[in-house]
Amino acid sequence: NAGVMQNPRHLVRRRGQEARLRCSPMKGHSHVYWYRQLPEEGLKFMVYLQKENIIDESGMPKERFSAEFPKEGPSILRIQQVVRGDSAAYFCASSPLGNNSPLHFGNGTRLTVT
Amino acid sequence: GIQVEQSPPDLILQEGANSTLRCNFSDSVNNLQWFHQNPWGQLINLFYIPSGTKQNGRLSATTVATERYSLLYISSSQTTDSGVYFCAVSYGKLTFGQGTILTVHP
User: Fold this and answer.
1) Residues A100, B29: contact at Cβ < 8 Å?
2) What is residue A82's three-state secondary structure?
3) Of A56, B27, B51, B67, which is least packed with CB atoms within 10 Å of its CB?
């Protein structure tokens, strides 16, 4: 009974490098969400995707960040040219029916930019 | 966008005590969920409760959508209940409150 799988668990990048975060939703879930959590803060919505479609990206920074959820394979959150301010925990969640159904979270990826 | 306010921000209990956490929100919602983030950072969905009352073991939740608030009750608290409790609401994408930090001492 696999839950939402995120990898890597921890990721260290130098300033200017690219970070790729992966998320496989729960079996049977086709709705994926990405959230960012800064230390001592709540979760901030970034993007909502369904297979091959971005439904809502209103929380994504306009530059350097992108997300996809291809027909086959995991959802990817990509951060280009990382800066120190990108250091955070990035959580992926999935749901069976979109916005009006329970959200289940992965264990997160802790990104540290040095 | 929707504003979500949780209270209290911090709560310290002795094991066995009961507590009530509150979530107020600024607009009509059709989705409200409670989550527990444990000290290792894992987020667990406790309740999907846009309205009404639900119970799961020592935890229960009530949402009064017309008055724009939800309550999470924890009875006979245990040290494993420690962590941060988040309320999240939406009419669309989920917006999280800032959380209540609960510490349960043995």
Assistant:
1) no
2) coil
3) B67
Residues linked to residue B104 through DSSP beta bridges, in sequence order: B13
Determine the Cα–Cα distance for residues B50 and B30; give it in Å rounded to an integer: 6
Which residues of chain A lie closer than 8 angstroms to B45, CB-CB? 102-105
| Residue A102 forms contact with B (CB below 8 Å) | yes
DSSP assignments along chain B, one per residue: ---EEEE-SEEEEETT--EEEEEEESS--SEEEEEEE-TT--EEEEEE-SSEEEEETTEEEEEEGGGTEEEEEE-S--GGG-EEEEEEEESSS-EE---EEEEEE-
The predicted-structure confidence for B22-76, as pLDDT tens digits, reads as follows 999 999 888 999 999 999 999 999 999 999 999 999 999 999 999 999 999 999 9
A44-71 pLDDT tens trace:
999 999 988 999 999 999 999 999 999 9
| Contact call for B93 and A41, based on CB within 8 A | no
Residues A75, A51: Cα–Cα separation, whole Å: 9
Q: What is the pLDDT of residues A23-43, one digit of tens each?
A: 999 998 999 999 999 987 889
Q: Is B98 on the interface with A (CB under 8 A)?
A: yes
Enumerate residues 6+ apart whose C-beta is below 8 A from B8: B21, B100
| Cβ(B42)–Cβ(A107) below 8 Å | yes
pLDDT bracket for residue A100 (50, 70, 90): confident
Whole-angstrom distance, CA of residue B100 vs CA of residue A86? 25
The DSSP 8-state label assigned to residue A99 in this structure reads: G
